[in-house]
Write the structure tokens for this entry.
Amino acid sequence: MSSRTNTVLTVAGLSLAGIIAYAVYFDYRRRTDVEFRKQIRKEKKRVNKSLAQSREALAAASEVSEAELREALKQIKSEPLPTSEQYFMSQVAMGEQLSSAGQHFPAALSFYRALCVYPSPPDLLDIYQKTVPPATVKIVLALVNLDLAPKMRATALAYFEVFPPKSVNVTLQTRPPSSETFGPEKVLVLTKDVAAGEVIYKEHPLLTCLDYDLQLAGTYCTHCLREIQPSLGSLPLLSSVSTKAAFCSKPCQVASKTQWHSLLFTLDPPLPAVSELSQLAPTPEALEARRAAQAQLLAYLNKDSRVGTALMAKFIARQLTAANGTAPGQAAGDYTRADGGEYQLEDHVERWSASPKNAEPPVEEYPLVVALLKATLPGLERFVTEDSHRSLLGRIAFNAFGVCFGGGRDDRPPSTLRPEDAELTRKPYGTVRQVGTALYTVSAYLSHSCAPNARPSFSSGTSELQLIATKDLKTGDELSIAYVDVVQRTGESAPECRQRRRKELARGWKFACECSRCLKEASEK
Ligand SMILES: C[S@@+](CC[C@H](N)C(=O)[O-])C[C@H]1O[C@@H](n2cnc3c(N)ncnc32)[C@H](O)[C@@H]1O
């Protein structure tokens, strides 16, 4: 399979936030908009009528030839495709009706029309794959392959034309599949000359997770990970039902609360306040179920300090609050918006590579996440499958950075997990010395070298990552950092150092390093 096809499949294969936005949007409209409900009822009647008329003619159409598909596409192309919500909704409703009546070809054509007018076809395709009968989806996919796949590829490529923003001084390049040298698929490349010691870019995180012991102690800011000066005191989290957190400032407290905390760990309404929603005020039992689901997930996260899962839950919450307009989808300097591109948070994460390690999260994890989503906004849970949960967790856990100040700390409690399950973060000093974990949209792409030309630094005393050049560098140079400790230790020979770092890379990061230093040392053996 070509890497281009892979890109399309990757783009089509995850998009949890697209699912969430869809779920929230429809749930919200269904609950609040009388016209919207009328429209759905009217459409259903119309579909039933047309179904009755054409049942006989459509019955034979479950096996469709390519010629028939092409003919149908020609017909669709000749129709006006209005981009109105009503048109989109009516096509989806019709597709659902036809599909449930076993009329897979006409159902697929309706779903396909909806796909043609949807702003992000890969997201919708993903939803279809999870919610529409496979016989119908098969035909939709065949239509996509014939018609939409080239456009989807173009969208995937366009993303990398506008991201990262020019101000970051780096660009993302894809290695040609025929490349002689082994290495990651995508690499960050400099767009200007920099001198050793210079800051290449600064980046605020998309999300952070303070180490659990520090959260309990209240000595670091839960949002920006800054150490809290005892003399200045800290701000506690307001109206939290089940978790403890402290903040260094009001902006950090507000950002944390609005981006994810209210949704995950309070009983605040998950959707914006609308008067017509009052009839849907949650019952005491529903509130108790939400509180219990939050407490159970929190206990699970804290028991083994499951940072990857905590970041994933925060990510889901941040999607929802951004989709609902209850919190900004972007913070200053986190580069979630590409230059000129209308990209959402998930557009970044779905392009990251996924960890093979998180292929099987503990069996109890998925039901806990689902229970929380269900208790927060009934119906939402249907859109998070075991696959999308695994996929999102794999991407998030794999691309995190450990945040360390100075040389890092000495008092981090050892992990209770088996070494192969333990959290792993790229870091200057080692996961054992960090104060917390953070996710960055640009830095996620930094690859490893045992002779790196850059290093991440947190010298502002917060989770803001500064990428520092460790050598004089030229435009076009590929940037690399060290994922593991690459410095030869006292009493360690060069071959021992080589063996140690290559073992750690193979175990933790699942690749055999072929950087210039590894190759040179191999030739000297
Ligand atoms: C955290 S991801 C890095 C981001 C990755 N470059 C991407 O495209 O999303 C880490 C993975 O990138 C790949 N990688 C990073 N540095 C590499 C290198 N020097 N050689 C081979 N693969 C590398 C490995 O698959 C590794 O497990």
Residues 134-162 form the longest helix (29 residues).
